[in-house]
Design goal:
The protein is mainly β. 10% of the residues lie in helices and 48% in strands. Strands 1-2-3-5-4 form a 5-stranded mixed beta barrel. It is globular.
């Protein structure tokens, strides 16, 4: 088991910064896990976004910022961006 932990630390994705607009979309359509998800839409792609350590089945703290542009720092794991911090960017 400790071998797996060592391997996971070595292959952890590098931290990065994403800038994009937050949108609400249905996640997991036609499954038991279907729910309203918060996505960050960037030039590089669209990713489900949630704060590090948050419960994926509870309300997302980023929900009130839907429609706004943010800059978030965190880690990307497949299709989910785990945000460590974020700031709302004033639309000009």
């Amino acid at each position: 088991m400790s071998e797996n932990k060592k391997r996971n630390k070595q292959t952890a994705p590098a931290p990065l910064t994403l800038r994009g607009r937050l949108e609400l979309r249905t996640f997991g359509k036609t499954t038991k896990s279907e729910h309203l998800g918060v996505y960050i839409v960037t030039e590089k792609g669209d990713y489900l976004i949630r704060p590090v350590g948050s419960n994926p089945f509870m309300d997302n703290p980023l929900l009130p910022f839907a429609g706004k542009t943010i800059e978030a720092k965190g880690r990307l794991n497949e299709y989910v961006f785990f945000a460590q911090s974020w700031v709302v960017i004033d639309d000009e």
